[in-house]
Amino acid sequence: MAATTKNIEKTIDSDPGLDIDSILGFRYLSDAIEHEIRAFWYFTWRDWSAAIIPGTMCTIAALRALDSTASAGLIARSLARSVLYCLLFLYSFNIANQINGVAEDQINKLDRPLPSGRVSLRGAYIRWHAMTVAYLAAGAAWGVLPWTALWVFITICLTFCGGDKHWATKNVLFMTVGSLCLLQGAWGLVAPPSARETRWTVLLSSAFGILASLQDLRDIEGDRVAGRRTLPIVLGDNFRWVMAALSCAVPAACWKLEFLHYSHVLVGYCGAVLTLSTFYMAYRILRGSSSKYDHKTYMILTYVFCGCIAVPMLFP
Question: 208: exposed, middle or buried (C-beta count within 10 Å: 0-12, 13-18, 19+)?
Fold first, then answer.
């Protein structure tokens, strides 16, 4: 701060016509914006491949599925809305989730804003209220308010009403419905989803929700402190075998229910690659022995999630 003040004084000495209040005001505004960008990054960086990237890809898939060629204006407007919508989707949830999980994060994720001291608890609450209002306003303005309001409801239930305490609500229910809110909302920014798109998003969201308990492998100690009954805690050593079996079974269901409806030959190759990816994920589940390794396995699941959305994006 002292160095900054000296620099400002030198600037004024070289040009007496400058207003020190304006310079200081600009400096404080610049610092505040930089701080908020850093806060956003630390709150969200782990989850971009589970929310922002797949949501934006889903909007692109919706643009590609239009009966007529989308104009440049529609494409630019839809993508801008999608990125902002997905940012608010993720940021509003993560703030609430991390407010609820301070005790856990002091064990598992010390780099997060609250346990690291980058953001105060009061500051986190202010940001959550502001981002939630902005998210609801965006959903209302862009015609996807039902999905937006449902996600806010899920966020409150999961983080402030104890919904995170049991694996069935935390992952199977809320992760499934939350993924559905993301995909349906992102598609709806372009056009109302048809019955086929809805069936596809329900299938993909259900598959993701079933496998989402993988994320709890990296947080077992913190979850015990928080009093959670996650699936790795409930099943113990059997969890890895159960999840590995599910990782191999889920692609078969997806092939039966969705991929076989496509006539494009390249879709079959995409499905084969995604299936092999889930088999590799199953291998990693059985082999995992550290939190860091298990975190990478969960990240592979989010990449497969994005890969599934890439199929209708590339082959509408």
Answer: buried
Any residues with CB less than 8 A from the CB of 119 and at least 6 apart, and which? 39, 42, 43, 113, 127
Strands (E), 215-296: none
List pLDDT tens digits, range 239-250: 999 999 999 998
229 phi and psi angles, rounded to 5 deg: -110, 70
**What pLDDT score does 64 carry?**
93
pLDDT tens-place string over residues 294-307: 999 999 999 999 99
CA atoms of 14 and 20, how far apart (whole Å): 12
What one-character DSSP code corresponds to residue 172?
A: I
Question: Residue 208's Cα: distance from chain center in Å?
Answer: 12
Provide CB contacts within 8 A for 62, sequence distance 6+.
Answer: 78, 186, 187, 188, 189, 190, 191, 193, 197
User: Two tokens at 35?
Assistant: 């701080």
Dist CA 125 CA 72 (whole Å): 39
Alpha helices for 161-216 (secondary structure H)? 167, 174-188, 195-211
Q: Which amino acid is at 132?
A: T
| CA–CA separation, 104 and 303 (whole Å) | 25
Query: Do residues 211 and 301 make contact, with C-beta atoms less than 8 angstroms apart?
Result: yes
Residue 197 Cα distances to 78, 102, 106, 316, angstroms: 18, 38, 41, 11
For residue 83, count other CB atoms closer than 10 A to its CB: 14
**For tokens 């497969």, what's the residue?**
304
Say how far apart CA 272 and CA 55 lie, in whole Å: 23
